[in-house]
């Protein structure tokens, strides 16, 4: 990976952190629960992107003004809240974030000297080339800033076919990062790629939020995030920046906010409205976030039911209004400027892949009406097997010469293989939770909420597998990254909190497995670059390993509520 792209990516990560930090600092000053602090930080970054996007739709000049105001406003919030006084509280989260980023960069570009980061990452991990979907947000950003001639964004993709939130990050960084881009003489592709990768890194504060929400202490949340950073499905979907991890992060933060409200740590009004905005932001990033609604909606309705009297209906109306206001600009863009905007709905849920003029509901009815009952059942069984068959955990592991490539193939497509050791730990959490329920015992530890969220994540997978129309279509990249993040981080946090040595062994095993499958070198072209990026990857690994230790050494008291928000203020 070219040095200019690494530099730009670090700067872009700092800009994303600026908005996360300003949102978190404001939330901290308002006395919110630590989980809400983190969730508002994630929401603030998403909101900055959305404001930038809408402003640029209005006019590129308005977009430029918005970019300046957003950066100045975020800095002003940090100054007025005196956020620097809490620097100790953000050292651990910042180290994990930076470590996850550097480890992913080191693993992705360990053996390469390609200049174009998009081209390099598309062919880096597998024995086939990934599609150019990671370039679409940048193309959409350019289209919004200066609408192109003709009808299509790229190939046969309409500008309204893919949700746009990541394009907002790109537009913002094109302006905010322009001085650095000029200094390092980076081209437009490097700028767009850097912004895209930085946006995906929102998964770190989201994971910290959801692990903290189920009841774990700050150091455990850092261990869980560090472990998550080692899992290939997270690495690949961070540096191959189609917006799936960004969408997953927003959806996970929504779950965290609701759990915090249900546990009585956050005000229901704050939790519900915040979750509504985060979930909408997830859908505006990638449609896969909508697949988390089977978990998000029951949590939200349960919390709403606890609100008494007329306040319940006012809160429900407020949340609905927040969703409408956030989603309306994109809805109008789809329906009025570049209709119909429902291609992916028809593709995944009606099996209609070519461009089709029928409304989605008509296409859905037509497709189901034309299929036989046995074909529909076979397709669902096929999809459920692809998503949940435990025997796929070992798929591709054999004595053949090309087994690494075969295993990587399964980890890209099959959920149990992609989760790997996390799949086993998640089943252990689920089993322990079910035993706890059968005994009707109350325990004051994270197991009840951990088990509930793990069960909810698996429930979302079942709904997704049944809803997908075509057989063999319930593959990882057509689902949600949100449940992948939850099924990795939450079970590991439970394990390491109960049996630290087993958790440590699991982390070492995951690291060794990741290197075994994904660090196999192709043809070497630039030994100097290879060594320099190897150092980058090792530095990331060191940061991941020592972040929880440094966090504890700074004198934090994780068993007090006052210190808890400090861990979540990133």
Task: Lay out the secondary structure.
Blueprint: H1 3-29, H2 34-58, H3 60-80, H4 87-108, H5 117-124, H6 136-145, H7 165-176, H8 178-183, H9 188-200, H10 203-213, H11 218-228, H12 232-239, H13 244-262, H14 268-285, H15 293-305, H16 310-337, H17 343-350, H18 360-370, H19 373-388, H20 403-413, H21 415-419, H22 421-439, H23 447-467, H24 481-498, H25 500-518, H26 527-553, H27 564-567
Helix pairs in contact: 1-2, 1-3, 1-9, 2-3, 2-7, 2-10, 2-13, 2-14, 3-7, 4-12, 4-26, 6-7, 7-9, 10-11, 10-13, 10-24, 11-24, 11-26, 13-14, 13-15, 13-24, 14-15, 14-16, 17-18, 19-23, 22-23, 22-24, 23-24, 24-25
Gap between N and C termini, in Å?
A: 28 Å
Number of strands: 0
Shape label? globular
- What is the string of SSEs from the N terminus onward? HHHHHHHHHHHHHHHHHHHHHHHHHHH
Give the structural class.
Answer: mainly alpha
Rounded average pLDDT:
89
Low-confidence stretches: 556-570
Profile the largest sheet: none
Helix content, binned percent? over 70%
Radius of gyration: 22 Å
Strand content of the residues, in percent?
A: under 5%
- Counting H and I runs of at least 4 residues, what is the number of helices? 27
């Amino acid at each position: 990976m070219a040095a200019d792209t690494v530099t730009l990516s670090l700067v872009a990560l700092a800009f994303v952190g600026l908005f996360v930090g300003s949102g978190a600092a404001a939330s901290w000053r308002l006395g919110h629960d630590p989980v809400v602090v983190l969730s508002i930080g994630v929401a603030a970054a998403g909101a900055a992107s959305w404001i930038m996007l809408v402003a640029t739709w209005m006019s590129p000049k308005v977009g430029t003004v918005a970019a300046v105001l957003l950066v100045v406003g975020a800095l002003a919030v940090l100054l007025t809240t005196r956020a620097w006084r809490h620097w100790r509280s953000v050292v651990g989260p910042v180290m994990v974030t930076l470590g996850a980023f550097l480890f992913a960069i080191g693993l992705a570009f360990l053996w390469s000297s390609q200049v174009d980061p998009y081209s390099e990452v598309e062919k880096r991990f597998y024995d086939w080339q990934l599609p150019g979907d990671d370039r679409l947000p940048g193309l959409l950003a350019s289209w919004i800033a200066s609408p192109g001639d003709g009808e299509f964004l790229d190939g046969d993709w309409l500008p309204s076919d893919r949700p746009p939130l990541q394009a907002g990050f790109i537009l913002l960084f094109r302006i905010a990062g322009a001085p650095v881009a000029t200094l390092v003489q980076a081209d437009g592709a490097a700028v767009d790629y850097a912004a895209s990768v930085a946006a995906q890194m929102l998964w770190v504060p989201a994971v910290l939020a959801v692990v903290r929400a189920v009841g774990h202490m700050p150091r455990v949340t850092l261990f869980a995030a560090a472990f998550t950073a080692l899992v290939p499905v997270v690495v690949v979907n961070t540096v191959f920046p189609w917006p799936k991890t960004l969408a997953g992060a927003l959806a996970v933060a929504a779950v965290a906010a609701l759990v915090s409200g249900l546990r009585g740590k956050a005000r229901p009004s704050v939790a519900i409205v915040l979750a509504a905005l985060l979930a909408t932001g997830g859908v505006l990033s990638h449609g896969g976030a909508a697949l988390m609604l089977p978990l998000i909606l029951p949590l939200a309705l349960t919390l709403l039911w606890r609100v008494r009297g007329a306040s319940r209906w006012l809160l429900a109306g407020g949340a609905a209004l927040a969703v409408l206001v956030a989603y309306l600009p994109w809805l109008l863009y789809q329906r009025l400027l570049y209709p119909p905007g429902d291609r992916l709905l028809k593709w995944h849920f009606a099996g209609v892949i070519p461009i089709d003029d029928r409304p989605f509901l008509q296409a859905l009815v037509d497709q189901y009406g034309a299929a036989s009952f046995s074909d529909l059942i076979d397709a669902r069984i096929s999809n459920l097997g692809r998503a949940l068959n435990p025997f796929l955990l070992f798929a591709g592991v054999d004595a053949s010469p090309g087994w690494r490539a075969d295993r990587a193939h399964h980890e890209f497509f099959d959920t149990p293989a992609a989760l790997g050791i996390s799949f086993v730990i998640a089943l252990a959490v689920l089993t322990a939770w079910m035993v706890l329920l059968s005994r009707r015992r109350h325990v004051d530890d994270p197991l009840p909420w951990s088990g509930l969220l793990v069960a909810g994540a698996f429930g979302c997978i079942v709904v997704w597998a049944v809803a997908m129309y075509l057989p063999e279509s319930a593959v990882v990249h057509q689902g949600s990254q949100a449940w992948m993040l939850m099924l990795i981080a939450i079970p590991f946090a439970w394990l390491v909190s109960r049996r630290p040595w087993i958790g440590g062994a699991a982390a070492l095993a995951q690291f060794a497995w990741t290197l075994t499958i994904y660090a196999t070198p192709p043809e070497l072209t630039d030994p100097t670059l290879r060594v320099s990026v190897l150092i980058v990857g090792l530095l990331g690994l060191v940061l991941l390993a020592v972040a929880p230790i440094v966090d504890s050494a700074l004198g934090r008291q994780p068993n007090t509520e006052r210190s808890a928000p400090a861990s979540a203020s990133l």
